[in-house]
């Protein structure tokens, strides 16, 4: 089957490439080959199913969240901006809303609405979308052979196959193989925006992982990990120490999940953490749960609260007639200092704060709370990071096709005429918050537009 433009991959970048091509040359015959039964499956996972589809920051702010080479992204960003993406969805019937941090979502908060709108709009442009077409081979002259025996050919080929993250969505790294076959350099790939696993959080089976530092998300949790799972911390300081020396501090929110430490600032530091662990380095976390309060002031506050609890009439009027014991008082104290859902995990990971003892021939236990250590731990709760969750659940793949070999103003290969790349297959990754999807949309739109305009010029 002959066409004008073949797009391999029906994800965010591939769909937007088709739209960009159709808008630039409406008469062009454009085919998307998607290996999965449905296109854009990874879009459904973004924003925890709510789809944070872009970030509305202007370029000077947006670019600070690109972790690779912002100058490469700049032409595609200005060619198809976050406002353009918002207008694209609004114009095609999907209401949107911009929330805290300039993150844009569909008003419905349903990722499926974003995907459906994009697919329906692309199909209305006359694009042919073929699913369950797994590409097996790319031959010279851009003849593409699928596993079912079908072949397609076109003078323009756009590779938009994504990376390695979330393999259940079809991201298997095929595009890197084809790019390499076509002469392109692949920058080493690794998981980014992923959960970081504290030592003692998961059960160790003693086996060496295929990827150094990788701890599969399905690995069973320890009792200590289970105690922390589900807790969310807001407005804290996270300080990361790399190899015992270099440190960085981020302010914001983290989540303890079945994978490890996630959330906005957990993801923010994950790229550098993963890279350090892959290289055999060490990573340590320190959580400051009270960043706005100096240690001395916090220590005084903890002691004041403790005395208030001890002197509270309700403490002395316990049902057993002996008063509330120290263990229960300690739990009440923690409830005044942190979210209730954090208390079981905090106690499990910091057992030295509460000492338990019993006198000989006595059934009664005595509890001693180290208030100074409690205050210090609230300001400096330490975790050694044992590893990270891999491609099975990371948000984005770092690394990919070297952008040195791609023209930023067109997304065309510098090595092969008529070959284009866009989206996650490129060595281009960003922070969490809508930045990665916007880069996929922007580079995709520009790749399709450039390929279609090139057709007209050749004619």
Structural notes for this entry:
By secondary structure, this protein is α+β, with helices and mostly antiparallel strands. It folds into two domains: 252 residues, FAD/NAD(P)-binding domain, CATH 3.50.50.60; 197 residues, no CATH class. It has 14 helices and 21 strands. Strands 12-19-16-13-14-15 form a six-stranded antiparallel beta sheet. Strands 6-2-1-10-21 form a five-stranded parallel beta sheet, covered by helices on one side. Helix 1 packs parallel to helix 14 and helix 9 crosses helix 11. The longest helix has 24 residues. It is elongated. The relative contact order is 0.20. About 1% of the residues have low confidence.
Task: Note the main attributes of this structure.
459 residues, alpha+beta, 2 domains, six-stranded antiparallel β-sheet, 21 strands, elongated
What is the topological layout?
Elements: E1 5-8, H1 12-24, E2 30-33, E3 54-55, H2 59-62, H3 70-79, H4 82-91, E4 96-99, E5 103-106, H5 111-124, E6 128-130, E7 135-139, E8 143-146, E9 151-153, E10 156-159, H6 174-181, E11 186-192, E12 196-198, H7 223-228, E13 232-242, E14 246-256, E15 261-262, H8 264-278, E16 283-288, H9 295-311, H10 313-316, H11 326-335, H12 343-349, E17 354-358, E18 365-369, H13 371-379, E19 381-388, E20 396-401, E21 419-421, H14 435-458
Helix pairs in contact: 1-5, 1-14, 3-14, 9-11, 9-13
């Amino acid at each position: 089957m002959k066409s004008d433009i073949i797009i391999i991959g029906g994800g965010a970048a591939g769909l937007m490439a088709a739209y960009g091509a159709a808008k630039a040359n409406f008469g062009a015959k454009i085919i998307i080959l998607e290996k999965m039964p449905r296109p854009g499956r990874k879009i459904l996972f973004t924003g925890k199913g709510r789809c944070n589809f872009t970030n509305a920051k202007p370029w000077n702010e947006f670019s600070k969240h690109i972790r690779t080479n912002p100058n490469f992204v700049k032409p595609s960003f200005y060619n198809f901006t976050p406002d353009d993406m918002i207008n694209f969805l609004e114009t095609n019937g999907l209401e949107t809303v911009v929330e805290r941090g300039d993150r844009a979502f569909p008003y419905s908060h349903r990722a499926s609405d974003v995907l459906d709108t994009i697919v329906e709009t692309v199909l209305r442009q006359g694009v042919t979308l073929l699913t369950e077409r797994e590409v097996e081979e790319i031959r010279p002259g851009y003849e593409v052979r699928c596993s079912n025996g079908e072949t397609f050919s076109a003078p323009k080929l756009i590779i938009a196959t994504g990376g390695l993250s979330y393999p259940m969505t079809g991201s298997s790294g095929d595009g890197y193989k084809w790019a390499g076959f076509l002469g392109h350099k692949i920058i080493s790939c690794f998981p980014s925006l992923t959960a970081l696993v504290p030592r003692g959080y998961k059960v160790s089976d003693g086996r060496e992982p295929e990827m150094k530092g990788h701890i599969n998300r399905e690995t069973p949790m320890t009792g200590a990990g289970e105690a922390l799972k589900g807790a969310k911390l807001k407005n804290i300081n996270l300080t990361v120490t790399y190899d015992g020396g270099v440190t960085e501090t981020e302010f914001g929110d983290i989540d303890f999940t079945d994978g490890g430490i996630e959330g906005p600032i957990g993801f923010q530091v994950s790229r550098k953490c993963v890279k350090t662990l892959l290289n055999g380095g060490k990573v340590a976390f320190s959580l400051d749960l009270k960043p706005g309060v100096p240690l001395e002031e916090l220590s005084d506050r903890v002691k004041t609260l403790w005395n208030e609890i001890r002197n509270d009439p309700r403490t002395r009027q316990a049902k057993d007639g002996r008063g509330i014991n120290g263990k229960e008082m300690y739990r009440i104290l923690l409830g005044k200092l942190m979210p209730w859902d954090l208390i079981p995990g905090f106690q499990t990971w910091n057992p030295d704060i509460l000492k338990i003892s019993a006198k000989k021939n006595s059934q009664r236990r005595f509890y001693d709370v180290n208030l100074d250590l409690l205050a210090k731990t609230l300001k400096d709760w330490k975790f050694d990071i044992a590893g990270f969750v891999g491609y099975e659940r990371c948000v984005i793949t770092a690394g990919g096709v070297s952008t040195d070999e791609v023209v930023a103003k067109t997304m065309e290969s510098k090595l092969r005429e008529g070959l284009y790349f866009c989206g996650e297959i490129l060595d281009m990754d960003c922070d969490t918050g809508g930045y990665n999807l916007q880069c996929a949309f922007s580079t995709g739109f520009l790749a399709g537009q450039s390929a279609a305009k090139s057709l007209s010029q050749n004619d």
